[in-house]
Amino acid sequence: MSLKKKKDYSGSDLTGQLFAKQDLAMSSFEDTLMEGVDLSDSILEMARFDGAILDNANLFSADLYMASFFLASLRNANLTEADMLGVDLKEADLRGANLTGANLGVSNIGSRSQLQGANLRGAILTNAKLDGAEYDKYTAFPDNFDPSAQKMIFVESK
Fold first, then answer.
1. Is the pLDDT confidence value at 141 over 70?
2. Is the dihedral of CA 1, 43, 5, 71 positive or negative?
C-alpha cells in the first residue's frame, strides 16, 4: 500500500471521470457522485465510498482491500475480478452489479467482508469468492443463490 498522502474527493461530482490505474489508497470519496467513473485496475485500499453513487462505474480488477461502501450505490457496476477482501458493503445497493471472479473473502488480518443489509438482487456472482463474508436477514441475494453453499457466515442483526 502506498504511503503517500490520501486525497479527499468527498461531496464532489466526478461523473464519468477516468481514474484507471491510479493509486488512490486511503482516499475519501464519501457522498460523491461517481456515475460511470472508470476506476479499473486502480489501488483503492482502505478508500471510503460511504454514501457515494457509483452506478455503472468500472471497477474491473480494482484493489479494494478493506474499502468502505456503507450505504453506497453500485448499481450495474463492473466489479469483475476486484480484490474486495474485508470490504464493508453494509446496506450497499449492488443490484445488477457484475462481481464475476471478485474476491470478497477474509482479509489477511482476519477482517470479513460485510454484506449486512446489502441488496444483491440481479447481481452476477459467477465464480465470486465469498468464503467467510458476512450477511444478515436483511441481505437480499439473487434468485436461487444459497449463501451457505458459498460458505458465507450468517450474523444476527443488531
1. yes
2. negative
Residue type, 121: R
pLDDT tens digit sequence for 27-85: 999 999 999 999 999 999 999 999 999 999 999 999 999 999 999 999 999 999 999 99
Give the chain's length: 158
Report all structural domains of the chain as residue ranges with CATH numbers, in order of start. Answer: 13-158 (2.160.20.80)
pTM of the model: 0.95
Burial 14-26 (b: 16+ CB within 10 A, else e): beebebeebbbbb
* Whole-number Å distance between alpha carbons of 105 and 107: 7
CA–CA separation, 133 and 53 (whole Å) = 23
How is residue 141 written as a grid cell? Answer: 441475494
The helix/strand/coil state of 148 is helix
